[in-house]
Task: structure prediction
Amino acid sequence: MKLGDLIIAPNILLPKQGTDLNKFAIVACDQFTSQPEYWQELDKLVGSCPSSLRLIFPEAFLPLVNQTQYINTINATMEQYLSNGILEPLGEGYVLVERSTPQTPRRLGLMLAIDLEQYSYQPGNDAPIRASEATIIERIPPRLYIRENASIELPHVLVLFEDKGGFVIESLYRKRGNYPLVYDFELNQNGGHLRGYHIKNTMLVEQLFTDLFTGRALKFIVGDGNHSLATAKAHWDKIKLKLSEAEQETHPARFSLVEAINIYDEGLSFEAIHRIVFNADSDFIPGLKQRLSGPYMGHLYTKQRGESDLLLPRSSPQAYEIVQRYIDEYLKSHPHAEVDYIHGIADLKQIADRHDHAVGIIMPALTKNDIFSYLERGVVLPRKCFSMGHAHEKRYYLESKLIK
Result:
Protein backbone atom coordinates (compact mmCIF):
# COMPACT_ATOMS: atom_id res chain seq x y z
CA MET A 1 0.00 0.00 0.00
CA LYS A 2 1.28 3.45 -0.90
CA LEU A 3 0.85 6.12 1.72
CA GLY A 4 -1.24 8.03 -0.79
CA ASP A 5 -3.84 5.28 -0.42
CA LEU A 6 -4.08 6.09 3.30
CA ILE A 7 -3.77 9.87 3.72
CA ILE A 8 -3.72 12.94 1.53
CA ALA A 9 -2.65 16.54 2.02
CA PRO A 10 -5.94 18.47 2.23
CA ASN A 11 -6.77 21.97 1.06
CA ILE A 12 -7.79 23.26 4.48
CA LEU A 13 -10.20 26.14 4.99
CA LEU A 14 -9.43 28.71 7.71
CA PRO A 15 -11.26 31.86 8.79
CA LYS A 16 -10.13 34.91 6.82
CA GLN A 17 -7.57 37.29 8.27
CA GLY A 18 -9.09 39.62 10.85
CA THR A 19 -11.59 37.08 12.21
CA ASP A 20 -11.67 36.88 16.00
CA LEU A 21 -10.37 33.33 16.36
CA ASN A 22 -11.02 33.32 20.09
CA LYS A 23 -14.73 33.44 19.25
CA PHE A 24 -14.53 31.32 16.11
CA ALA A 25 -12.88 28.22 17.61
CA ILE A 26 -15.07 26.26 20.03
CA VAL A 27 -14.81 22.91 21.80
CA ALA A 28 -16.11 19.59 20.41
CA CYS A 29 -19.91 19.25 20.23
CA ASP A 30 -20.00 16.11 22.40
CA GLN A 31 -18.50 17.79 25.47
CA PHE A 32 -20.40 19.18 28.50
CA THR A 33 -23.53 17.32 27.38
CA SER A 34 -25.10 17.49 30.85
CA GLN A 35 -24.04 21.11 31.35
CA PRO A 36 -26.03 23.25 28.90
CA GLU A 37 -24.94 26.33 30.85
CA TYR A 38 -21.45 25.90 29.34
CA TRP A 39 -22.91 26.26 25.85
CA GLN A 40 -25.22 29.08 26.85
CA GLU A 41 -22.25 31.07 28.18
CA LEU A 42 -20.37 30.32 24.96
CA ASP A 43 -23.31 31.54 22.91
CA LYS A 44 -23.23 34.86 24.78
CA LEU A 45 -19.48 35.15 24.26
CA VAL A 46 -19.73 34.55 20.51
CA GLY A 47 -22.69 36.82 19.92
CA SER A 48 -23.05 37.75 16.24
CA CYS A 49 -19.37 37.14 15.38
CA PRO A 50 -18.41 34.42 12.88
CA SER A 51 -17.99 31.20 14.84
CA SER A 52 -17.86 27.46 14.38
CA LEU A 53 -20.58 27.41 17.06
CA ARG A 54 -22.93 28.28 14.19
CA LEU A 55 -21.61 25.37 12.11
CA ILE A 56 -22.03 22.47 14.55
CA PHE A 57 -24.81 20.99 16.72
CA PRO A 58 -23.89 20.88 20.44
CA GLU A 59 -25.28 17.64 21.81
CA ALA A 60 -26.41 19.47 24.96
CA PHE A 61 -28.95 21.28 22.74
CA LEU A 62 -30.43 18.14 21.15
CA PRO A 63 -33.44 17.92 23.52
CA LEU A 64 -33.88 21.70 23.71
CA VAL A 65 -34.40 22.80 20.10
CA ASN A 66 -36.24 21.93 16.90
CA GLN A 67 -33.55 19.70 15.39
CA THR A 68 -34.62 20.01 11.76
CA GLN A 69 -34.72 23.78 11.94
CA TYR A 70 -31.39 23.89 13.78
CA ILE A 71 -29.67 21.70 11.17
CA ASN A 72 -31.11 23.71 8.28
CA THR A 73 -29.68 26.86 9.88
CA ILE A 74 -26.27 25.19 10.23
CA ASN A 75 -26.18 24.24 6.55
CA ALA A 76 -27.31 27.71 5.48
CA THR A 77 -24.58 29.29 7.63
CA MET A 78 -21.96 27.06 6.00
CA GLU A 79 -23.02 28.32 2.59
CA GLN A 80 -22.99 31.89 3.85
CA TYR A 81 -19.47 31.60 5.29
CA LEU A 82 -18.22 30.17 1.99
CA SER A 83 -19.94 32.70 -0.26
CA ASN A 84 -18.95 35.67 1.92
CA GLY A 85 -15.32 34.59 2.08
CA ILE A 86 -15.34 34.08 5.84
CA LEU A 87 -13.71 30.72 5.16
CA GLU A 88 -10.72 30.79 2.81
CA PRO A 89 -8.63 27.95 1.31
CA LEU A 90 -5.14 27.68 2.72
CA GLY A 91 -3.80 25.60 -0.15
CA GLU A 92 -2.72 21.97 -0.26
CA GLY A 93 -0.62 20.92 2.70
CA TYR A 94 -0.58 19.78 6.30
CA VAL A 95 -1.04 21.92 9.39
CA LEU A 96 1.21 21.24 12.37
CA VAL A 97 -0.83 21.99 15.50
CA GLU A 98 0.72 23.11 18.79
CA ARG A 99 -1.70 23.22 21.74
CA SER A 100 -1.06 24.22 25.33
CA THR A 101 -3.67 23.85 28.08
CA PRO A 102 -3.77 24.50 31.83
CA GLN A 103 -2.83 20.82 32.25
CA THR A 104 0.02 20.53 29.76
CA PRO A 105 2.54 22.99 28.26
CA ARG A 106 2.50 21.37 24.82
CA ARG A 107 0.62 18.79 22.75
CA LEU A 108 1.41 18.32 19.06
CA GLY A 109 -0.79 17.16 16.22
CA LEU A 110 -0.92 17.15 12.44
CA MET A 111 -3.99 17.99 10.37
CA LEU A 112 -4.36 15.56 7.47
CA ALA A 113 -7.11 13.79 5.53
CA ILE A 114 -7.59 10.04 5.73
CA ASP A 115 -9.06 7.85 3.01
CA LEU A 116 -12.36 6.47 4.32
CA GLU A 117 -11.90 3.44 2.08
CA GLN A 118 -9.06 2.44 4.41
CA TYR A 119 -11.10 2.84 7.60
CA SER A 120 -13.58 0.53 9.32
CA TYR A 121 -15.48 0.65 12.60
CA GLN A 122 -16.62 -2.99 12.38
CA PRO A 123 -15.14 -5.36 15.02
CA GLY A 124 -12.80 -8.02 13.68
CA ASN A 125 -11.66 -6.02 10.66
CA ASP A 126 -8.06 -5.71 9.45
CA ALA A 127 -8.28 -2.16 8.04
CA PRO A 128 -5.22 0.04 8.60
CA ILE A 129 -7.45 2.68 10.26
CA ARG A 130 -9.81 1.35 12.94
CA ALA A 131 -12.25 2.52 15.58
CA SER A 132 -11.03 2.23 19.14
CA GLU A 133 -14.45 1.70 20.69
CA ALA A 134 -17.76 0.07 19.90
CA THR A 135 -19.85 2.12 17.50
CA ILE A 136 -23.50 2.58 18.39
CA ILE A 137 -25.21 2.37 15.01
CA GLU A 138 -28.27 4.21 16.33
CA ARG A 139 -26.13 7.32 16.87
CA ILE A 140 -25.21 7.60 13.18
CA PRO A 141 -28.53 8.59 11.50
CA PRO A 142 -28.99 11.96 13.33
CA ARG A 143 -25.37 12.90 12.57
CA LEU A 144 -25.79 11.70 9.00
CA TYR A 145 -28.77 14.01 8.60
CA ILE A 146 -26.53 16.95 9.50
CA ARG A 147 -23.79 15.86 7.11
CA GLU A 148 -25.77 14.91 4.03
CA ASN A 149 -26.54 18.54 3.13
CA ALA A 150 -23.38 20.06 4.57
CA SER A 151 -20.84 21.78 2.32
CA ILE A 152 -17.96 21.40 4.74
CA GLU A 153 -16.82 19.30 7.65
CA LEU A 154 -15.29 20.64 10.84
CA PRO A 155 -13.60 17.75 12.58
CA HIS A 156 -13.08 17.02 16.23
CA VAL A 157 -11.73 13.59 15.26
CA LEU A 158 -8.32 12.72 16.71
CA VAL A 159 -6.49 9.68 15.33
CA LEU A 160 -3.55 8.12 17.12
CA PHE A 161 -0.44 6.39 15.83
CA GLU A 162 2.52 4.75 17.60
CA ASP A 163 5.82 6.60 17.28
CA LYS A 164 7.92 6.04 20.41
CA GLY A 165 10.95 7.60 18.75
CA GLY A 166 9.13 10.79 17.77
CA PHE A 167 10.24 10.46 14.13
CA VAL A 168 7.25 12.21 12.48
CA ILE A 169 5.50 15.08 14.24
CA GLU A 170 8.27 15.80 16.71
CA SER A 171 10.84 16.07 13.90
CA LEU A 172 8.52 18.42 11.99
CA TYR A 173 8.09 20.54 15.11
CA ARG A 174 11.83 20.98 15.50
CA LYS A 175 11.80 22.59 12.03
CA ARG A 176 8.70 24.71 12.66
CA GLY A 177 10.65 27.90 11.91
CA ASN A 178 10.65 26.83 8.25
CA TYR A 179 6.85 26.80 8.03
CA PRO A 180 4.43 29.77 7.86
CA LEU A 181 2.57 30.45 11.12
CA VAL A 182 -1.12 30.54 10.10
CA TYR A 183 -2.70 31.09 13.51
CA ASP A 184 -1.60 31.90 17.06
CA PHE A 185 -4.27 32.75 19.65
CA GLU A 186 -5.91 32.05 23.01
CA LEU A 187 -8.83 29.62 23.08
CA ASN A 188 -12.01 30.50 24.94
CA GLN A 189 -13.51 28.76 27.98
CA ASN A 190 -10.16 27.74 29.54
CA GLY A 191 -9.09 25.85 26.39
CA GLY A 192 -5.48 27.06 26.40
CA HIS A 193 -3.46 28.37 23.44
CA LEU A 194 -3.27 27.22 19.81
CA ARG A 195 -0.65 27.67 17.09
CA GLY A 196 -0.65 26.26 13.57
CA TYR A 197 2.11 25.93 10.98
CA HIS A 198 1.38 25.22 7.30
CA ILE A 199 3.63 22.52 5.81
CA LYS A 200 3.54 22.70 2.02
CA ASN A 201 6.28 20.09 1.54
CA THR A 202 3.85 17.19 1.34
CA MET A 203 6.46 14.71 0.11
CA LEU A 204 8.48 15.20 3.32
CA VAL A 205 5.51 14.38 5.54
CA GLU A 206 4.48 11.38 3.47
CA GLN A 207 7.99 9.95 3.49
CA LEU A 208 8.18 10.24 7.29
CA PHE A 209 4.92 8.30 7.65
CA THR A 210 5.96 5.75 5.03
CA ASP A 211 9.17 4.99 6.94
CA LEU A 212 7.28 4.76 10.24
CA PHE A 213 4.45 2.52 9.00
CA THR A 214 6.49 0.01 6.99
CA GLY A 215 5.60 -3.49 8.20
CA ARG A 216 2.68 -2.37 10.36
CA ALA A 217 -0.87 -3.57 9.71
CA LEU A 218 -2.60 -1.20 12.16
CA LYS A 219 -1.53 2.35 11.43
CA PHE A 220 -4.14 4.70 12.94
CA ILE A 221 -6.79 4.24 15.60
CA VAL A 222 -9.54 6.73 16.35
CA GLY A 223 -8.89 8.28 19.74
CA ASP A 224 -11.68 10.86 19.80
CA GLY A 225 -14.72 11.29 17.56
CA ASN A 226 -15.42 7.62 16.78
CA HIS A 227 -19.05 8.28 15.90
CA SER A 228 -18.26 11.37 13.86
CA LEU A 229 -15.83 9.43 11.69
CA ALA A 230 -18.27 6.53 11.43
CA THR A 231 -20.84 9.05 10.17
CA ALA A 232 -18.38 10.33 7.57
CA LYS A 233 -17.86 6.74 6.44
CA ALA A 234 -21.62 6.07 6.25
CA HIS A 235 -22.09 9.27 4.24
CA TRP A 236 -19.35 8.30 1.80
CA ASP A 237 -20.66 4.75 1.41
CA LYS A 238 -24.07 6.21 0.54
CA ILE A 239 -23.04 8.81 -2.04
CA LYS A 240 -20.34 6.76 -3.77
CA LEU A 241 -23.03 4.44 -5.14
CA LYS A 242 -24.06 7.26 -7.48
CA LEU A 243 -20.52 7.99 -8.67
CA SER A 244 -18.39 6.48 -11.41
CA GLU A 245 -15.09 4.86 -10.44
CA ALA A 246 -13.21 7.89 -11.72
CA GLU A 247 -15.39 10.25 -9.68
CA GLN A 248 -14.92 8.13 -6.56
CA GLU A 249 -11.15 8.51 -6.78
CA THR A 250 -11.19 12.25 -6.14
CA HIS A 251 -14.55 13.07 -4.53
CA PRO A 252 -13.89 15.28 -1.47
CA ALA A 253 -16.29 13.31 0.76
CA ARG A 254 -14.02 10.26 0.41
CA PHE A 255 -11.34 11.97 2.49
CA SER A 256 -12.07 13.07 6.04
CA LEU A 257 -10.12 15.75 7.87
CA VAL A 258 -8.60 14.63 11.19
CA GLU A 259 -5.87 15.60 13.61
CA ALA A 260 -3.23 12.87 13.97
CA ILE A 261 -1.36 12.62 17.28
CA ASN A 262 1.49 10.41 18.41
CA ILE A 263 0.06 8.33 21.25
CA TYR A 264 3.37 8.81 23.10
CA ASP A 265 3.28 12.60 22.87
CA GLU A 266 4.31 13.90 26.29
CA GLY A 267 1.41 16.33 26.34
CA LEU A 268 -1.22 13.66 25.69
CA SER A 269 -2.82 12.29 28.84
CA PHE A 270 -5.41 9.56 29.04
CA GLU A 271 -8.26 10.33 31.39
CA ALA A 272 -10.98 7.98 32.50
CA ILE A 273 -14.53 8.53 31.30
CA HIS A 274 -16.91 8.06 34.20
CA ARG A 275 -20.49 6.83 34.07
CA ILE A 276 -23.54 8.31 35.72
CA VAL A 277 -26.89 6.52 35.71
CA PHE A 278 -29.95 8.67 36.35
CA ASN A 279 -33.22 7.37 37.83
CA ALA A 280 -31.47 4.30 39.19
CA ASP A 281 -33.55 2.04 41.43
CA SER A 282 -32.25 0.54 44.66
CA ASP A 283 -31.24 -2.64 42.82
CA PHE A 284 -28.62 -0.89 40.65
CA ILE A 285 -25.69 -0.80 43.08
CA PRO A 286 -26.12 -4.33 44.51
CA GLY A 287 -26.40 -5.73 40.97
CA LEU A 288 -23.24 -3.94 39.85
CA LYS A 289 -21.24 -5.07 42.86
CA GLN A 290 -22.35 -8.64 42.21
CA ARG A 291 -20.75 -8.48 38.74
CA LEU A 292 -17.46 -6.98 39.93
CA SER A 293 -14.61 -8.33 42.01
CA GLY A 294 -10.93 -7.67 41.89
CA PRO A 295 -7.80 -6.37 43.61
CA TYR A 296 -8.22 -2.68 42.70
CA MET A 297 -10.39 -0.17 44.48
CA GLY A 298 -12.82 1.92 42.50
CA HIS A 299 -15.57 4.19 43.75
CA LEU A 300 -19.27 4.89 43.42
CA TYR A 301 -20.77 8.30 44.17
CA THR A 302 -24.30 9.23 45.15
CA LYS A 303 -25.81 12.41 46.59
CA GLN A 304 -26.95 10.59 49.70
CA ARG A 305 -23.82 8.55 50.51
CA GLY A 306 -20.96 10.36 48.86
CA GLU A 307 -18.18 8.00 47.78
CA SER A 308 -18.34 4.27 48.45
CA ASP A 309 -16.00 1.45 47.49
CA LEU A 310 -16.20 -0.69 44.36
CA LEU A 311 -13.82 -3.57 43.58
CA LEU A 312 -12.51 -3.55 40.00
CA PRO A 313 -10.58 -6.22 38.05
CA ARG A 314 -6.87 -5.83 37.39
CA SER A 315 -7.37 -5.12 33.67
CA SER A 316 -8.75 -1.65 32.94
CA PRO A 317 -10.26 -2.75 29.58
CA GLN A 318 -12.00 -5.59 31.42
CA ALA A 319 -13.41 -3.18 34.00
CA TYR A 320 -14.99 -1.12 31.23
CA GLU A 321 -16.34 -4.23 29.51
CA ILE A 322 -18.09 -5.48 32.66
CA VAL A 323 -19.43 -2.10 33.82
CA GLN A 324 -20.73 -1.09 30.38
CA ARG A 325 -22.35 -4.47 29.79
CA TYR A 326 -24.13 -4.20 33.13
CA ILE A 327 -25.34 -0.65 32.41
CA ASP A 328 -26.61 -1.63 28.95
CA GLU A 329 -28.54 -4.58 30.39
CA TYR A 330 -29.89 -2.45 33.24
CA LEU A 331 -31.22 0.22 30.87
CA LYS A 332 -33.08 -2.43 28.86
CA SER A 333 -34.84 -3.75 31.97
CA HIS A 334 -35.31 -0.30 33.54
CA PRO A 335 -36.49 1.96 30.69
CA HIS A 336 -36.87 4.97 32.99
CA ALA A 337 -33.10 4.96 33.71
CA GLU A 338 -30.61 6.93 31.58
CA VAL A 339 -26.82 7.04 31.32
CA ASP A 340 -24.36 9.81 30.55
CA TYR A 341 -20.58 9.81 30.22
CA ILE A 342 -18.67 12.43 32.19
CA HIS A 343 -15.10 13.73 31.94
CA GLY A 344 -13.72 14.63 35.35
CA ILE A 345 -14.57 13.42 38.85
CA ALA A 346 -15.50 16.90 40.09
CA ASP A 347 -18.04 17.29 37.26
CA LEU A 348 -19.40 13.80 37.95
CA LYS A 349 -20.01 14.64 41.61
CA GLN A 350 -21.51 18.02 40.77
CA ILE A 351 -24.01 16.45 38.38
CA ALA A 352 -24.83 13.58 40.79
CA ASP A 353 -25.54 16.08 43.56
CA ARG A 354 -28.33 17.56 41.45
CA HIS A 355 -30.24 14.26 41.28
CA ASP A 356 -31.65 12.15 44.10
CA HIS A 357 -31.52 8.88 42.17
CA ALA A 358 -28.25 9.16 40.28
CA VAL A 359 -25.27 6.83 40.69
CA GLY A 360 -21.83 7.94 39.54
CA ILE A 361 -19.27 5.27 38.71
CA ILE A 362 -15.68 6.48 38.92
CA MET A 363 -13.69 4.53 36.31
CA PRO A 364 -9.93 3.83 36.02
CA ALA A 365 -7.72 5.38 33.33
CA LEU A 366 -6.28 3.17 30.59
CA THR A 367 -2.54 3.33 29.94
CA LYS A 368 -1.11 4.21 26.53
CA ASN A 369 0.31 0.71 26.20
CA ASP A 370 -3.17 -0.76 26.71
CA ILE A 371 -4.65 0.75 23.57
CA PHE A 372 -2.80 -0.55 20.51
CA SER A 373 -1.98 -3.94 22.06
CA TYR A 374 -5.69 -4.47 22.75
CA LEU A 375 -6.97 -3.28 19.37
CA GLU A 376 -4.38 -5.17 17.32
CA ARG A 377 -6.31 -8.33 18.21
CA GLY A 378 -9.17 -7.12 16.02
CA VAL A 379 -11.46 -6.22 18.92
CA VAL A 380 -12.80 -2.84 20.00
CA LEU A 381 -13.19 -1.32 23.44
CA PRO A 382 -16.63 -0.59 24.84
CA ARG A 383 -17.75 2.94 24.03
CA LYS A 384 -16.43 5.83 26.09
CA CYS A 385 -13.47 4.02 27.63
CA PHE A 386 -10.91 6.78 27.58
CA SER A 387 -10.60 10.47 27.05
CA MET A 388 -7.53 12.22 25.77
CA GLY A 389 -7.32 14.93 28.38
CA HIS A 390 -10.06 16.78 30.23
CA ALA A 391 -13.19 18.10 28.54
CA HIS A 392 -11.77 21.58 27.92
CA GLU A 393 -8.65 19.99 26.39
CA LYS A 394 -10.66 18.41 23.57
CA ARG A 395 -10.08 19.51 20.02
CA TYR A 396 -11.52 22.91 19.15
CA TYR A 397 -13.20 23.37 15.77
CA LEU A 398 -11.06 25.62 13.57
CA GLU A 399 -9.87 23.97 10.36
CA SER A 400 -12.47 22.74 7.88
CA LYS A 401 -12.64 21.06 4.47
CA LEU A 402 -15.08 20.90 1.57
CA ILE A 403 -16.98 17.62 1.31
CA LYS A 404 -19.01 18.37 -1.80
